[in-house]
Amino acid sequence: MSTPPPGVDPGPAPDAVPVCPRHPDRVSYVRCQRCGRPACPECQRQAAVGVHCVDCVRASSRTAPVARTAFGAPLRGGPPVVTMTLVGLSVASFLLQLLLGRGGDNPWTQSLLFVPAWGAAEPWRFLTAAFLHSTGRGLLLHIGFNMYALWIFGPGLEQMLGRWRFLALYLVAAVGGSVAFTLLATPGIGTSWTAGVVGASGAVFGLFGAMFVLLRRLGRDVRGMVALLLVNAALPFVVGGIAWEAHLGGFVVGLGLGAAFAYAPKERRAQLGVVAVAGTLAVLVAAVAVRYATVNPLLLL
């Protein structure tokens, strides 16, 4: 090896060995097409042209526009998490009902079922009854229909509305079904005021109502929905023991929330969605409060 004589420019120094910024112990001659930094195999992400590093991919994802549905919900891949959770909770609750006994003294059923006469003192029952189902004759038909309908309509609505609006729709419609049953029951006459009500039918009919409105908003054919609604409207006159009042209440709530979600201005969808849910709950609470205020206290729990 020779050295240049004094006063002679030695020229540029040889380049340093390129290493991955995130893993300095790894040599990498592959560079990110965006930032130009070396990227080891672990930090490389295949792009349409060349390779990007993980840092550039993350930065791009934060600034890239989010793909959304016609009703403003972010498009998500993967399973319908909310629908699956609701089905799982309902099935688990039903199995617990069977495990603890199918009689009227079942502690799980007794603690969660809805009875109009008990609602003023134990308001949680307006919602919890939607996670119980009949364990009597034809037990599998009751939970089977509700869970099948939830599984058929739930994923589509969850995709269109997003998770929180779909969950709010389901839960508020369940409450609406119990409220309607209370408003249409007759205290002191017959058994409706002291009858126990269970089932997710009110919530499911809320999904029917919302789906009807959303399909209309999209200009889709709703004749199939109309036929389904007519068949279910006729069932209480053919099969006994069906709380049609809860079906009606859930359906009306579904129509209202569905309209609010579907026709909200694009720039205010999130805010109006919250207002619609809170406003619907306020109306339901006010209606049932007025109802209980007119009932003889001796007829309440």
UniProtKB/TrEMBL annotation:
This is Protease. One of its GO terms (biological process) is proteolysis. It is a multi-pass membrane protein. GO terms for molecular function: serine-type endopeptidase activity. It comes from the Bacteria. Pfam families: Rhomboid (PF01694). It comes from Cellulomonas carbonis T26. Keywords: Hydrolase, Membrane, Protease, Transmembrane, Transmembrane helix. Residues 122-261 form the Peptidase S54 rhomboid domain. PANTHER family: PRESENILIN-ASSOCIATED RHOMBOID-LIKE PROTEIN, MITOCHONDRIAL, RHOMBOID PROTEASE.
